[in-house]
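so my prof wants the structure for this chain in the tokens format not the other one, which i didnt know existed until like an hour ago. anyway here's the sequence
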Amino acid sequence: MSLPRPLHALAAAVLVAAAALGPAQPASAAPAEDLPSADQLKSALLTANDLGADYTEIPTAESPTTESPTTESPGPGENPTPVTGCDALSALIEMHATVPGPATPRAETELDGPDGNPMVTQSLTAEDSDRLTADFSTATDAFKTCHAITFNADTTDSVTFTVTPVTLGDRGDAPAVRLDGTIAGVQLNAYIGIERFGTVGMAFGFFQREGADSQAASAQYRTAVAKVEHTLGATAGSTTPPTAAAQGMSV
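here's what i got, hopefully its the right format
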């Protein structure tokens, strides 16, 4: 049994929205710092080569097809994500699903294992330091206060996940949660984590069915963190802007 497509798409939406990185801002609000471009962020994303031969990279709606300094956040009404429970996390998801955002340096990827199991998603968003600090704090609080949340992707299928704080990587202060639920008797499990690298925020998700492999989730998360650190020249948890942006790294 493959992961139902509505929940498959929902998982990616949850990853992006729950991280609360790059919230809606007035169109006139321009970044005050020299931020990495969308192409630079894309070069720091995981690829199938990073995860192994069993993984396949899935094209995403926000993957740039031409070189551009920015990509747009989802517009109003795109990928709506009805949610109930866990008010803080629900509010973040609904905000991203219904409110347009500004042009923001951003890149994301989805990598699927055989028959879509497991699924790894990752997004990188660049913001000035003050905005990213505020966004990171909001997401951290949401992760800490959320104990259960229900998703319904406009179908008769819905799933309620229990939410448990966990540590995914080597940095205990990096917010992460484990989600566990079932649909039609099938076990669904997810690990979602966020991290910052100076002026870049990362949202990571590891989704699987009929299993709860925390070691694989942790290993893939560590791989993601290491690649961002190496590519952008920024340490996980640091508030110092990436050196790659300052040096005008070309990709």
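also thought this was worth mentioning. The CA atoms of residues 83 and 151 lie 5 Å apart.
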